[in-house]
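Hi Y.,

Following your request, here is the sequence exactly as I used it, all 184 residues.
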Amino acid sequence: MKKMAPSLSTPMKFLALSMFFISIIYQDNAQFPTPNPNQTTMVFYLQDLAAGPNATVVAPVAGINGRVWSFTTFGSIFVVDFPVTLSISPASELVGQAQGLLIASALDGASVNVALSIVFNNLQYNGSTLELQGISRRHENYREVSVVSGTGKFRFARGYAVLETAFFDISRSTLRLTITIQTN
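Below is the corresponding structure, written out as tokens. Let me know if you'd prefer a different format.
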């Protein structure tokens, strides 16, 4: 007796054939994420010197009358001018300055409103800027703010920046700044 190959019933053939055609149609119409050639991620370090003649943050320049002005006192405003370097070492290559304002914006002192301009002075981006703005929750190691615009090579930039504490002691701290942007 001759053995016959197993065969599929008509409903099973229809189902298998339907699944085959659906997968072909789906693949032709699928929207797979494509890398954005205009997206850039950069990593820098903000060097914060808290004391001494070269301090990079000015003691509060404004606040609520009758209260002690500090990073945790609602309404206190600080002016900053942090060196921006390529590595965690304060002696590493300087690529620009992070200049702007920090405002204690939460009643409980847990958040600071950040408004920073990253002003580049290195050869690649000389004269270009990135504008960062958002809330930094002081007690979180990972803090995300918006990149809202830019100038020069970063004209029309938009994206986000992540601030992470890389080093901290009483006299100085270093923040790792990872910026991911899209430009036109």
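DSSP finds one helix and nine strands in the chain.

Thanks again,
Q.
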